[in-house]
Every structure is written in structure tokens, then in C-alpha cells.
Amino acid sequence: MNRLKIALLQIAPGGTLQENLEKGIRYCRMAKEKGADLALFPEMWSNGYRIYDRPVDEWKAEAIAVDSDFVHAFGRLAGEHQMAIGITLLEKYENAPRNSLVLFDRFGDRKFVYAKVHTCDFDVERNLTPGEDFYVTALDTACGKVKVGAMICYDREFPESARILMLKGAELILVPNACPMEINRLSQLRARAYENMTAIATCNYPATVPDCNGASSVFDGVAYLPELNDSRNTCILQANGEEGIYLAELDLEQLRRYRSSEVHGNAYRRPKKYGLLTDTKIDQPFLRDGYRE
Q: How far apart are CA 251 and CA 249, in angstroms?
């Protein structure tokens, strides 16, 4: 069986960059000992997403570059342990930092830097620079090459994020997270996986971190199997609130068979009918009963 072992590092950050470096390395090594092919961190691991209830200039000063020693350490670690790693950071970037994920393959080669496109501009994230695009790469793993994309936390709220990644070929979407994963947010992830026939792996902070509750998850996106009379539960992992490494095994052969024969994803889309989705002139909120002011 061609099963990709995904380790969700649901761990609490320390108070300094050095602490997070050391703890991150330690948990990546532990994940490898458990057999992981890929390890994923929660959102903005470099500073533990500590951007609330602090002066903006204070946390902006904690931004680090993608070519910093911190990030390079995880690239070396990926090559050393033959394990892909998705490390997250507050990225130093031009006039304002970005909320970013750097993905390394098992040889330690950097495959992409993804910056959160849908920053939470209703709150403190308005002080970040949003990303410009969504990326998919053929990630080299011990299971062979897997087409992997990424979105970060609030990106999950927009169906377009996962849809674009699916259209670019993503089989697996990595989602670093830092918020309470309650039933509605978990339902969003389930829906994104179902409607795109794409696996989605989300890593959150544990319940000991303010405004977080663990519940890291993996949805494999495979809703139907020929041998089953009914649909199946696509959730193959949901963590509790405790700190730890949560390992899920994604059946790539099953996912690929399903994607080749089922009716979701790109099978029967009608893009010519969707022009309103990209009409930037539509800026008024819809009111109840379907009317606008």
C-alpha cells in the first residue's frame, strides 16, 4: 500500500526564536522516529503567532527572512532525515511581514514559499503583506512524488483557495492553523476536501495556547468506495487538545483511483458561468432574501 505518513506537530511554542528552533527540531526528529514522511507545523511557528495584544512594531521586529538560519536549519533537517518539512514563520518582507510556509522536500530542497493570501484584515493581520498566489509542487517523498499545495488558516474560509489548488493539480493541501477548530471550521475543511477530491491536512496549536484548541485533522477527500453502500467518513485523523505528534496515513493509491473516476473536482465544472466570482465591482454585501441595497 502506498501510504504517505503525515505528522501534524500540534505543539506549543516557546517565548523566543531559539526555543522554537530547538523544540521544532526535536519534534521533527521524533516524527521521523514514528515513521513520518512529512512533518507540518502550526501557523507562524517562528514566533508562535504571538501578534495579538502586543504593539505592532514589537512583533514586526520578530520577522525573519526565508534564507535565515532558522529556516535553513529545517531544510538541513529534512535532508538529514529524508523527510519533507513544512516550516512556518513570520517572514521579513519588504515594507511589512508575511505569514508564510516554507516547504522542503526529503532532500532538503526548498519547493515553495507560500504566503497567506487571505490575511485577517478585520484584525491585527491587516499589518501583514498578503501573498499573491497559490502554489502546487511535485513534492519528493519516500512514497514518490506527491502534488502538494498550501493554504493558511483563514484561507480555508474561501472555497476559491482550495479550488485553485485543485485546478493546479494538488492531491494534498497543507494547512498551518492558529485558531479554535470548532465544528464549523472543521466542516469547511471537510467540504474543501470533498468538493475537490483532495486530501487536506491541518496542523493547529494545542489547547494550552490561547485561542487554540488542538483538533488538528486530516481529511482524505474520498467520500465513496465501490465496496460500500453508503458514503464514508473522510476524516482519517482528528486530534484532541493535547500537545503531541499526530500521525495520519494517507492512502495515495486510493485517492488517485477516486480522483480518476468520481464526479467532483473539475469533472463537470462550467467556468464560463462563474464570471461574477471575479467581478471586483461587486462590493456591496448581500442582504437577507437575496436582495442588495
A: 6
- Let me know: does 5 contact 249? Beta carbons within 8 Å: yes
Q: What b/e string do you get for 170-203 counting C-beta neighbours within 10 Å, with b at 16 or more?
A: bbbbbbbbbbebeeebbebbbbbbbbbbbbbbbb
Q: What pLDDT score does 29 carry?
A: 98
User: What integer pLDDT is reported at residue 292 of this predicted model?
Assistant: 42
- Sorted by sequence, the CB contacts under 8 Å of residue 234 that are 6+ apart come out as 190, 193, 194, 219, 220, 221, 222, 223
Positive or negative: CA dihedral 38, 6, 259, 136: negative
Phi, psi (rounded to 5 degrees) for 88: -115, 155
The residue type found at 93 is Y
> What gap in Å lies between CA 119 and CA 124, rounded to an integer?
9
Instruction: At 202, list the grid cell.
Output: 491541518
- CA–CA dist 13, 38 (Å, integer): 20
Comparing C-alpha atoms, which of 68, 103, 69, 98 is closest to residue 85?
A: 103
Regarding beta strands 144-150 and 172-176, do their DSSP bridges make them parallel or antiparallel, or are they unpaired? parallel
Domains and their CATH numbers in the chain: 3-290 (3.60.110.10)
Dist. CA 148–CA 173, nearest whole Å: 6
Low-confidence spans in the chain with pLDDT less than 50: 290-293
